[in-house]
User: What shape does this take?
Amino acid sequence: MNGFAALVARDLRLVWRRPGDVAVVLAFFVVATTLFPLGIGPEANVLVRIAAGVLWCAALFAALLSLDRLFASDHEDGTLDLLLLAPWPLELAALAKCCAHWIVTGLPLAALAPVLGVAFGLEPEVLLALAATLLIGTPTLSLIGGLAAALTLGARKSGALLALLALPLCVPTLIFGAGAIEALATGGDFGAHIAILAALALVALATTPWAIAAALRQAGE
Amino acid sequence: MADLHFLASPARFRRLSQRVLPSLAFATVLMLAFGLYLALIQSPPDYQQGDTVRIMFVHVPSAWLAMAGYGLLAALGASLLIWRHPLAALMARAAAPVGAGFCAVCLLTGALWGRPMWGAYWVWDARLTSMLLLFFLYLGHIALSRAYDEPERGDRAAAILALIGVINLPIIKFSVDWWNTLHQPASVARLGGPSIHPSILVPLLWMAATLFLLFVLLVLLRTDTEIDRRRLENAEVQS
Assistant: This one.
Protein backbone atom coordinates (compact mmCIF):
# COMPACT_ATOMS: atom_id res chain seq x y z
CA MET A 1 0.00 0.00 0.00
CA ASN A 2 3.01 2.23 0.61
CA GLY A 3 4.01 1.86 -3.00
CA PHE A 4 0.52 2.78 -4.09
CA ALA A 5 0.58 6.05 -2.17
CA ALA A 6 4.12 6.76 -3.35
CA LEU A 7 3.17 6.26 -6.99
CA VAL A 8 0.09 8.49 -6.69
CA ALA A 9 2.18 11.15 -4.94
CA ARG A 10 4.85 10.92 -7.64
CA ASP A 11 2.32 11.42 -10.43
CA LEU A 12 0.73 14.34 -8.60
CA ARG A 13 4.14 15.90 -8.06
CA LEU A 14 4.94 15.57 -11.76
CA VAL A 15 1.68 17.31 -12.64
CA TRP A 16 2.28 19.96 -10.00
CA ARG A 17 5.59 20.87 -11.63
CA ARG A 18 3.97 21.22 -15.04
CA PRO A 19 0.50 22.57 -14.26
CA GLY A 20 0.06 23.59 -17.90
CA ASP A 21 -0.90 20.05 -18.88
CA VAL A 22 -3.95 20.09 -16.63
CA ALA A 23 -4.80 23.67 -17.54
CA VAL A 24 -4.93 22.75 -21.23
CA VAL A 25 -7.40 19.94 -20.55
CA LEU A 26 -9.64 22.23 -18.50
CA ALA A 27 -9.38 24.96 -21.12
CA PHE A 28 -10.45 22.43 -23.76
CA PHE A 29 -13.44 21.52 -21.59
CA VAL A 30 -14.50 25.17 -21.33
CA VAL A 31 -13.97 25.94 -25.03
CA ALA A 32 -15.72 22.76 -26.24
CA THR A 33 -18.71 23.49 -24.01
CA THR A 34 -18.89 27.08 -25.25
CA LEU A 35 -19.13 25.92 -28.85
CA PHE A 36 -22.51 24.25 -28.30
CA PRO A 37 -24.54 27.39 -27.57
CA LEU A 38 -22.75 29.05 -30.50
CA GLY A 39 -23.64 26.18 -32.82
CA ILE A 40 -27.17 25.53 -31.59
CA GLY A 41 -28.31 29.04 -30.72
CA PRO A 42 -28.82 30.92 -27.46
CA GLU A 43 -32.46 29.87 -26.80
CA ALA A 44 -32.67 29.46 -23.04
CA ASN A 45 -35.05 26.48 -22.86
CA VAL A 46 -33.06 24.53 -25.46
CA LEU A 47 -29.83 25.15 -23.56
CA VAL A 48 -31.32 23.98 -20.27
CA ARG A 49 -32.56 20.85 -22.01
CA ILE A 50 -29.17 19.91 -23.54
CA ALA A 51 -26.87 21.21 -20.77
CA ALA A 52 -26.30 17.92 -18.94
CA GLY A 53 -25.61 15.96 -22.13
CA VAL A 54 -23.25 18.61 -23.49
CA LEU A 55 -21.30 18.94 -20.25
CA TRP A 56 -21.02 15.16 -19.89
CA CYS A 57 -19.84 14.66 -23.47
CA ALA A 58 -17.33 17.51 -23.18
CA ALA A 59 -16.03 16.07 -19.89
CA LEU A 60 -15.67 12.66 -21.54
CA PHE A 61 -13.66 14.13 -24.43
CA ALA A 62 -11.52 16.20 -22.08
CA ALA A 63 -10.74 13.15 -19.93
CA LEU A 64 -9.77 11.16 -23.04
CA LEU A 65 -7.63 13.98 -24.37
CA SER A 66 -5.37 13.84 -21.34
CA LEU A 67 -4.98 10.05 -21.40
CA ASP A 68 -2.54 9.36 -24.22
CA ARG A 69 0.39 10.48 -22.04
CA LEU A 70 -0.76 8.40 -19.04
CA PHE A 71 1.67 5.54 -19.65
CA ALA A 72 3.60 6.88 -22.65
CA SER A 73 6.06 9.05 -20.70
CA ASP A 74 6.70 6.22 -18.22
CA HIS A 75 7.26 3.90 -21.16
CA GLU A 76 9.78 6.26 -22.73
CA ASP A 77 11.86 7.09 -19.65
CA GLY A 78 12.00 3.52 -18.33
CA THR A 79 9.74 3.95 -15.31
CA LEU A 80 7.40 1.33 -16.71
CA ASP A 81 10.21 -1.25 -16.85
CA LEU A 82 10.94 -0.58 -13.18
CA LEU A 83 7.26 -0.98 -12.32
CA LEU A 84 7.23 -4.29 -14.21
CA LEU A 85 10.25 -5.48 -12.21
CA ALA A 86 9.01 -4.13 -8.88
CA PRO A 87 8.15 -6.76 -6.26
CA TRP A 88 4.57 -5.55 -5.85
CA PRO A 89 1.60 -6.15 -8.13
CA LEU A 90 1.44 -4.28 -11.41
CA GLU A 91 -2.36 -4.17 -10.98
CA LEU A 92 -1.87 -1.82 -8.01
CA ALA A 93 0.48 0.36 -10.03
CA ALA A 94 -2.14 0.55 -12.81
CA LEU A 95 -4.77 1.51 -10.27
CA ALA A 96 -2.47 4.17 -8.79
CA LYS A 97 -1.88 5.71 -12.22
CA CYS A 98 -5.64 5.85 -12.90
CA CYS A 99 -6.25 7.25 -9.43
CA ALA A 100 -3.74 10.04 -10.01
CA HIS A 101 -5.30 10.74 -13.41
CA TRP A 102 -8.73 11.05 -11.79
CA ILE A 103 -7.42 13.46 -9.14
CA VAL A 104 -5.92 15.78 -11.75
CA THR A 105 -8.72 15.59 -14.35
CA GLY A 106 -11.93 14.04 -12.95
CA LEU A 107 -11.99 16.19 -9.82
CA PRO A 108 -11.31 19.54 -11.57
CA LEU A 109 -13.84 18.67 -14.29
CA ALA A 110 -16.50 17.92 -11.68
CA ALA A 111 -15.67 21.21 -9.94
CA LEU A 112 -15.71 23.22 -13.17
CA ALA A 113 -18.89 21.74 -14.66
CA PRO A 114 -21.32 23.57 -12.31
CA VAL A 115 -19.67 26.90 -13.20
CA LEU A 116 -20.29 26.21 -16.87
CA GLY A 117 -23.78 24.95 -15.98
CA VAL A 118 -24.62 28.45 -14.74
CA ALA A 119 -23.99 29.72 -18.26
CA PHE A 120 -26.54 27.18 -19.52
CA GLY A 121 -29.10 28.53 -17.03
CA LEU A 122 -29.29 25.49 -14.77
CA GLU A 123 -30.97 25.69 -11.35
CA PRO A 124 -28.70 25.51 -8.25
CA GLU A 125 -29.91 22.03 -7.25
CA VAL A 126 -29.26 20.76 -10.78
CA LEU A 127 -25.75 22.22 -10.62
CA LEU A 128 -25.06 20.26 -7.45
CA ALA A 129 -26.51 17.11 -8.99
CA LEU A 130 -24.32 17.61 -12.07
CA ALA A 131 -21.19 17.85 -9.92
CA ALA A 132 -22.27 14.73 -8.02
CA THR A 133 -22.79 12.65 -11.20
CA LEU A 134 -19.40 13.74 -12.55
CA LEU A 135 -17.76 12.98 -9.22
CA ILE A 136 -19.11 9.42 -9.27
CA GLY A 137 -18.86 8.87 -13.04
CA THR A 138 -15.40 10.21 -13.87
CA PRO A 139 -13.49 7.43 -12.02
CA THR A 140 -15.00 4.99 -14.54
CA LEU A 141 -13.77 7.20 -17.38
CA SER A 142 -10.25 7.28 -15.90
CA LEU A 143 -10.20 3.48 -15.53
CA ILE A 144 -11.59 2.67 -18.99
CA GLY A 145 -9.43 5.38 -20.52
CA GLY A 146 -6.42 3.97 -18.67
CA LEU A 147 -7.12 0.60 -20.25
CA ALA A 148 -7.34 2.16 -23.71
CA ALA A 149 -4.10 4.05 -23.04
CA ALA A 150 -2.33 0.84 -21.99
CA LEU A 151 -3.65 -1.07 -25.01
CA THR A 152 -2.52 1.61 -27.47
CA LEU A 153 0.89 2.13 -25.84
CA GLY A 154 3.41 2.25 -28.67
CA ALA A 155 0.81 2.03 -31.44
CA ARG A 156 0.75 4.21 -34.53
CA LYS A 157 -1.76 7.09 -34.27
CA SER A 158 -2.42 6.14 -30.66
CA GLY A 159 -4.49 9.24 -29.86
CA ALA A 160 -7.36 8.63 -32.28
CA LEU A 161 -7.22 4.89 -31.65
CA LEU A 162 -7.49 5.48 -27.90
CA ALA A 163 -10.72 7.42 -28.41
CA LEU A 164 -12.13 4.77 -30.74
CA LEU A 165 -11.50 2.07 -28.13
CA ALA A 166 -12.65 3.98 -25.06
CA LEU A 167 -15.74 5.81 -26.31
CA PRO A 168 -18.04 2.79 -26.92
CA LEU A 169 -17.05 1.38 -23.53
CA CYS A 170 -17.89 4.71 -21.85
CA VAL A 171 -21.44 4.77 -23.26
CA PRO A 172 -23.13 3.31 -20.13
CA THR A 173 -21.49 5.92 -17.89
CA LEU A 174 -22.55 8.71 -20.24
CA ILE A 175 -26.13 7.43 -20.39
CA PHE A 176 -26.56 7.21 -16.64
CA GLY A 177 -24.58 10.37 -15.87
CA ALA A 178 -26.57 12.59 -18.21
CA GLY A 179 -29.71 10.53 -17.55
CA ALA A 180 -29.54 11.32 -13.83
CA ILE A 181 -29.91 15.04 -14.56
CA GLU A 182 -32.73 14.30 -16.98
CA ALA A 183 -34.42 12.21 -14.28
CA LEU A 184 -34.10 15.09 -11.83
CA ALA A 185 -35.78 17.45 -14.31
CA THR A 186 -38.63 15.09 -15.27
CA GLY A 187 -39.32 13.68 -11.81
CA GLY A 188 -37.61 10.35 -12.46
CA ASP A 189 -35.59 8.37 -9.95
CA PHE A 190 -32.36 10.34 -9.48
CA GLY A 191 -31.08 7.99 -6.77
CA ALA A 192 -31.35 4.94 -9.03
CA HIS A 193 -29.18 6.62 -11.65
CA ILE A 194 -26.58 7.53 -9.06
CA ALA A 195 -26.61 3.96 -7.72
CA ILE A 196 -26.05 2.52 -11.23
CA LEU A 197 -23.27 5.06 -11.90
CA ALA A 198 -21.58 3.91 -8.70
CA ALA A 199 -22.11 0.27 -9.72
CA LEU A 200 -20.47 0.94 -13.09
CA ALA A 201 -17.52 2.53 -11.31
CA LEU A 202 -17.18 -0.51 -9.04
CA VAL A 203 -17.32 -2.94 -11.99
CA ALA A 204 -14.62 -0.91 -13.73
CA LEU A 205 -12.58 -0.87 -10.50
CA ALA A 206 -12.85 -4.64 -10.22
CA THR A 207 -12.00 -5.51 -13.83
CA THR A 208 -9.85 -2.87 -15.51
CA PRO A 209 -6.70 -2.96 -13.29
CA TRP A 210 -6.10 -6.58 -14.32
CA ALA A 211 -6.63 -5.81 -17.99
CA ILE A 212 -4.39 -2.72 -17.78
CA ALA A 213 -1.66 -4.76 -16.08
CA ALA A 214 -1.92 -7.45 -18.77
CA ALA A 215 -1.65 -4.82 -21.50
CA LEU A 216 1.34 -3.15 -19.80
CA ARG A 217 3.14 -6.50 -19.52
CA GLN A 218 2.85 -6.95 -23.28
CA ALA A 219 4.12 -3.44 -23.89
CA GLY A 220 7.12 -4.23 -21.70
CA GLU A 221 7.95 -7.48 -23.52
CA MET B 1 -9.95 -29.45 -25.32
CA ALA B 2 -7.45 -31.87 -26.84
CA ASP B 3 -8.98 -31.29 -30.27
CA LEU B 4 -8.56 -27.53 -29.98
CA HIS B 5 -4.90 -27.91 -29.05
CA PHE B 6 -4.52 -30.23 -32.03
CA LEU B 7 -5.77 -27.42 -34.29
CA ALA B 8 -3.52 -24.81 -32.70
CA SER B 9 -0.67 -25.49 -35.12
CA PRO B 10 -1.09 -23.27 -38.19
CA ALA B 11 0.47 -25.85 -40.52
CA ARG B 12 -1.91 -28.59 -39.39
CA PHE B 13 -4.86 -26.23 -39.60
CA ARG B 14 -3.82 -25.24 -43.11
CA ARG B 15 -3.76 -28.87 -44.31
CA LEU B 16 -7.17 -29.51 -42.78
CA SER B 17 -8.76 -26.35 -44.14
CA GLN B 18 -7.41 -27.03 -47.62
CA ARG B 19 -9.26 -30.33 -47.54
CA VAL B 20 -12.51 -28.86 -46.16
CA LEU B 21 -12.72 -25.57 -48.06
CA PRO B 22 -13.76 -26.76 -51.58
CA SER B 23 -16.69 -28.86 -50.37
CA LEU B 24 -17.67 -26.16 -47.89
CA ALA B 25 -17.73 -23.56 -50.65
CA PHE B 26 -19.78 -25.87 -52.85
CA ALA B 27 -22.30 -26.55 -50.08
CA THR B 28 -22.60 -22.82 -49.31
CA VAL B 29 -23.35 -21.94 -52.93
CA LEU B 30 -25.97 -24.71 -53.23
CA MET B 31 -27.65 -23.73 -49.97
CA LEU B 32 -27.58 -20.07 -50.91
CA ALA B 33 -29.24 -20.79 -54.27
CA PHE B 34 -32.02 -22.79 -52.66
CA GLY B 35 -32.29 -20.30 -49.77
CA LEU B 36 -32.75 -17.41 -52.20
CA TYR B 37 -35.44 -19.39 -54.00
CA LEU B 38 -37.19 -20.01 -50.65
CA ALA B 39 -36.83 -16.42 -49.51
CA LEU B 40 -37.53 -14.52 -52.73
CA ILE B 41 -39.99 -16.73 -54.64
CA GLN B 42 -41.49 -19.52 -52.61
CA SER B 43 -42.38 -17.72 -49.35
CA PRO B 44 -45.53 -15.56 -49.39
CA PRO B 45 -45.38 -11.76 -48.92
CA ASP B 46 -46.39 -10.63 -45.44
CA TYR B 47 -49.96 -9.33 -45.13
CA GLN B 48 -48.75 -6.09 -43.53
CA GLN B 49 -45.17 -5.65 -44.70
CA GLY B 50 -45.65 -6.97 -48.23
CA ASP B 51 -42.44 -7.94 -49.99
CA THR B 52 -40.23 -5.93 -47.62
CA VAL B 53 -40.48 -8.83 -45.17
CA ARG B 54 -37.96 -10.60 -47.41
CA ILE B 55 -35.25 -8.25 -46.16
CA MET B 56 -35.61 -10.04 -42.83
CA PHE B 57 -34.21 -13.26 -44.31
CA VAL B 58 -30.82 -11.56 -44.56
CA HIS B 59 -31.21 -9.04 -41.76
CA VAL B 60 -31.99 -11.35 -38.84
CA PRO B 61 -29.29 -13.99 -39.52
CA SER B 62 -26.75 -11.17 -40.00
CA ALA B 63 -27.61 -9.81 -36.57
CA TRP B 64 -27.18 -13.27 -35.02
CA LEU B 65 -23.85 -13.80 -36.75
CA ALA B 66 -22.58 -10.34 -35.83
CA MET B 67 -23.22 -11.09 -32.16
CA ALA B 68 -21.85 -14.64 -32.36
CA GLY B 69 -18.81 -13.27 -34.19
CA TYR B 70 -17.88 -11.06 -31.26
CA GLY B 71 -18.26 -14.05 -28.95
CA LEU B 72 -15.86 -15.91 -31.25
CA LEU B 73 -13.36 -13.03 -31.01
CA ALA B 74 -13.52 -13.18 -27.21
CA ALA B 75 -13.06 -16.98 -27.20
CA LEU B 76 -10.08 -16.68 -29.57
CA GLY B 77 -8.69 -13.87 -27.44
CA ALA B 78 -8.93 -16.04 -24.32
CA SER B 79 -7.23 -18.97 -26.03
CA LEU B 80 -4.46 -16.66 -27.25
CA LEU B 81 -3.85 -15.18 -23.79
CA ILE B 82 -4.17 -18.46 -21.88
CA TRP B 83 -2.50 -21.03 -24.16
CA ARG B 84 -0.72 -18.64 -26.55
CA HIS B 85 -2.15 -20.51 -29.53
CA PRO B 86 -0.62 -18.84 -32.57
CA LEU B 87 -3.59 -19.85 -34.70
CA ALA B 88 -6.06 -18.05 -32.41
CA ALA B 89 -4.40 -14.71 -33.17
CA LEU B 90 -4.49 -15.30 -36.92
CA MET B 91 -8.09 -16.44 -36.82
CA ALA B 92 -9.18 -13.43 -34.71
CA ARG B 93 -7.45 -11.17 -37.24
CA ALA B 94 -9.38 -12.97 -40.00
CA ALA B 95 -12.74 -13.11 -38.22
CA ALA B 96 -13.05 -9.50 -37.00
CA PRO B 97 -13.68 -7.91 -40.43
CA VAL B 98 -16.14 -10.72 -41.29
CA GLY B 99 -18.10 -10.08 -38.10
CA ALA B 100 -17.98 -6.34 -38.74
CA GLY B 101 -19.23 -7.01 -42.27
CA PHE B 102 -22.24 -8.94 -41.02
CA CYS B 103 -22.86 -6.16 -38.50
CA ALA B 104 -22.81 -3.60 -41.33
CA VAL B 105 -25.13 -5.77 -43.45
CA CYS B 106 -27.50 -5.97 -40.49
CA LEU B 107 -27.48 -2.18 -40.04
CA LEU B 108 -27.85 -1.43 -43.77
CA THR B 109 -30.64 -3.94 -44.43
CA GLY B 110 -32.32 -2.66 -41.27
CA ALA B 111 -32.20 0.88 -42.66
CA LEU B 112 -33.63 -0.27 -46.01
CA TRP B 113 -36.43 -2.08 -44.18
CA GLY B 114 -37.04 0.82 -41.80
CA ARG B 115 -37.59 3.41 -44.52
CA PRO B 116 -40.85 1.91 -45.91
CA MET B 117 -41.98 0.39 -42.58
CA TRP B 118 -41.15 3.05 -39.99
CA GLY B 119 -40.77 5.97 -42.39
CA ALA B 120 -37.13 6.56 -41.45
CA TYR B 121 -33.79 4.99 -42.32
CA TRP B 122 -32.64 5.32 -38.75
CA VAL B 123 -34.41 5.65 -35.42
CA TRP B 124 -32.67 5.81 -32.05
CA ASP B 125 -34.22 2.57 -30.96
CA ALA B 126 -32.41 0.57 -28.30
CA ARG B 127 -31.78 -2.43 -30.57
CA LEU B 128 -30.43 -0.36 -33.43
CA THR B 129 -28.21 1.67 -31.15
CA SER B 130 -26.68 -1.32 -29.40
CA MET B 131 -26.01 -2.92 -32.80
CA LEU B 132 -24.25 0.28 -33.87
CA LEU B 133 -22.13 0.20 -30.71
CA LEU B 134 -21.25 -3.43 -31.44
CA PHE B 135 -20.07 -2.24 -34.86
CA PHE B 136 -17.86 0.37 -33.14
CA LEU B 137 -16.41 -2.34 -30.89
CA TYR B 138 -15.57 -4.35 -34.02
CA LEU B 139 -13.90 -1.28 -35.57
CA GLY B 140 -11.82 -0.79 -32.43
CA HIS B 141 -10.71 -4.42 -32.49
CA ILE B 142 -9.76 -4.26 -36.19
CA ALA B 143 -7.91 -0.96 -35.78
CA LEU B 144 -6.04 -2.07 -32.65
CA SER B 145 -4.90 -5.41 -34.07
CA ARG B 146 -3.38 -3.59 -37.05
CA ALA B 147 -1.92 -0.59 -35.19
CA TYR B 148 1.49 -2.04 -34.33
CA ASP B 149 4.65 -2.62 -36.28
CA GLU B 150 5.00 -6.03 -34.61
CA PRO B 151 1.78 -7.90 -35.42
CA GLU B 152 2.01 -10.12 -32.32
CA ARG B 153 1.67 -7.08 -30.05
CA GLY B 154 -1.49 -6.00 -31.89
CA ASP B 155 -2.90 -9.51 -31.62
CA ARG B 156 -2.50 -9.60 -27.84
CA ALA B 157 -3.83 -6.07 -27.29
CA ALA B 158 -6.86 -6.89 -29.44
CA ALA B 159 -7.38 -10.12 -27.47
CA ILE B 160 -7.56 -8.16 -24.19
CA LEU B 161 -9.93 -5.68 -25.83
CA ALA B 162 -12.21 -8.49 -27.04
CA LEU B 163 -12.43 -9.93 -23.52
CA ILE B 164 -13.20 -6.55 -21.95
CA GLY B 165 -15.68 -5.88 -24.76
CA VAL B 166 -17.54 -9.11 -24.20
CA ILE B 167 -17.90 -8.26 -20.48
CA ASN B 168 -19.15 -4.81 -21.42
CA LEU B 169 -21.61 -5.85 -24.15
CA PRO B 170 -24.42 -6.85 -21.74
CA ILE B 171 -23.83 -3.66 -19.73
CA ILE B 172 -24.00 -1.54 -22.89
CA LYS B 173 -27.12 -3.39 -24.04
CA PHE B 174 -28.78 -2.87 -20.66
CA SER B 175 -27.93 0.82 -20.46
CA VAL B 176 -29.08 1.51 -24.02
CA ASP B 177 -32.39 -0.24 -23.27
CA TRP B 178 -32.74 1.97 -20.19
CA TRP B 179 -31.79 5.10 -22.13
CA ASN B 180 -34.38 4.45 -24.81
CA THR B 181 -37.25 3.76 -22.40
CA LEU B 182 -36.27 6.96 -20.63
CA HIS B 183 -36.57 9.12 -23.73
CA GLN B 184 -39.40 7.50 -25.68
CA PRO B 185 -41.37 4.50 -24.49
CA ALA B 186 -41.65 1.93 -27.31
CA SER B 187 -43.36 4.02 -29.92
CA VAL B 188 -41.80 2.11 -32.77
CA ALA B 189 -43.58 -0.74 -34.50
CA ARG B 190 -42.06 -4.09 -33.67
CA LEU B 191 -41.44 -6.94 -36.00
CA GLY B 192 -42.99 -10.24 -35.11
CA GLY B 193 -46.15 -10.16 -33.05
CA PRO B 194 -47.19 -13.30 -31.21
CA SER B 195 -45.49 -15.87 -33.40
CA ILE B 196 -43.83 -16.35 -36.74
CA HIS B 197 -45.73 -18.40 -39.31
CA PRO B 198 -43.86 -21.49 -40.63
CA SER B 199 -43.99 -20.10 -44.19
CA ILE B 200 -41.67 -17.32 -42.97
CA LEU B 201 -39.82 -19.27 -40.29
CA VAL B 202 -38.53 -22.06 -42.55
CA PRO B 203 -36.81 -19.75 -45.08
CA LEU B 204 -35.48 -17.68 -42.19
CA LEU B 205 -33.85 -20.67 -40.51
CA TRP B 206 -32.57 -21.95 -43.86
CA MET B 207 -30.97 -18.59 -44.60
CA ALA B 208 -29.53 -18.51 -41.07
CA ALA B 209 -27.88 -21.89 -41.67
CA THR B 210 -26.62 -20.71 -45.08
CA LEU B 211 -25.15 -17.47 -43.78
CA PHE B 212 -23.57 -19.39 -40.91
CA LEU B 213 -21.81 -21.58 -43.47
CA LEU B 214 -20.79 -18.46 -45.36
CA PHE B 215 -19.38 -17.01 -42.13
CA VAL B 216 -17.36 -20.17 -41.45
CA LEU B 217 -16.18 -20.29 -45.06
CA LEU B 218 -15.01 -16.67 -45.04
CA VAL B 219 -13.27 -17.03 -41.69
CA LEU B 220 -11.43 -20.20 -42.75
CA LEU B 221 -10.44 -18.68 -46.08
CA ARG B 222 -9.20 -15.49 -44.48
CA THR B 223 -7.36 -17.45 -41.76
CA ASP B 224 -5.51 -19.31 -44.50
CA THR B 225 -4.61 -15.99 -46.08
CA GLU B 226 -3.39 -14.66 -42.73
CA ILE B 227 -1.18 -17.74 -42.26
CA ASP B 228 0.33 -17.16 -45.70
CA ARG B 229 0.80 -13.48 -45.05
CA ARG B 230 2.52 -14.08 -41.69
CA ARG B 231 4.83 -16.62 -43.31
CA LEU B 232 5.65 -14.18 -46.07
CA GLU B 233 6.47 -11.43 -43.59
CA ASN B 234 8.69 -13.74 -41.57
CA ALA B 235 10.45 -14.87 -44.77
CA GLU B 236 11.08 -11.25 -45.71
CA VAL B 237 12.54 -10.50 -42.31
CA GLN B 238 14.87 -13.49 -42.53
CA SER B 239 16.15 -12.91 -46.06
